[in-house]
Prior knowledge:
single chain, mainly alpha, 2 domains, 18 helices, globular
Amino acid sequence: MQSIVTSHSVDRILAHGDRANEDALDEVYRKYRSSHPFLPVTHFIDHSTMGSEALVALGLGHKVMDWTSHHRVRPYDAPSVGVSISSAWTEAIGRKECHGDWMRYFESELNGGSHEDVLALWIERFAHDVGAFLFHGLIRTAHAARALQHKDTPERRGELARGLALWAIGIKSAPSNEPTDRAVGVDPIAGIMHCARAGAATFVRKSTIPNLHLVTGPMAFMMVAHHLNSRVHDVAATAFRLTHARAIKAMESSERDAHSEPIPSFDQTHLAALAENTDAHPIKLTEAALRAYQATGDDLLLKAAGKVQNYGFWRALVG
């Protein structure tokens, strides 16, 4: 199949500026503000809010409320131990029993203050563990931050608080005081994009849920990178080199395998089908891969997104 995708056509797909049906997100964030962040049985992360924001970014905001109707709200009372996050945050890192403490802290900090300042401070403290909960602390934070860029509302600030709190309880340890092991002569943002590309090659070669997040993880960081200074970029790039070490090592052979894969098209039929799939992963991968393609012009990213266009293939993948 010949590609009909160009940078110009991706510009038309990805929503910019005044996104259509933007207000649907506030309704979604109200709906899930007290919902359990972990799914039953699997205990994986609930994707209801992240998938909704990605749909809006793909110009499919009119599909959001129908899509979320398939995602149940499950009442959740976040556990707390009473720790003071402002003075003893390192003691609460990585502790699920402190989830309520983290949420209340971030809600307070974001209540009328600068969300940019909150992001800058806390991502600097969290960036050493971008892979927490298979990148989902970062991913939920990034989708909420992008929603806030488009419209500043209490609902979006609340979702950002929940994203940051999720990230906090997934981090394995507080950041080290040791200097970052920076790759000499490598721009950290370029390094993070290289990780996304390595993730795409790996996903094309072996399409699994963990490999899919090797694309969506680094591309989530790209949504918040402009809030952060070069020092944080260095820390994140170092962290991504660790999470993507196997993908980077196998890059050459993965690219060879991907060479024969067709380049997919992305017409409105393909895009609308994403919203018919109740799983958020195809939505999130498509949006992230199109952004990566827009930034690089690399067809490998399109091939990764093409892997989730076929509904039957996706159902077989997730079992």
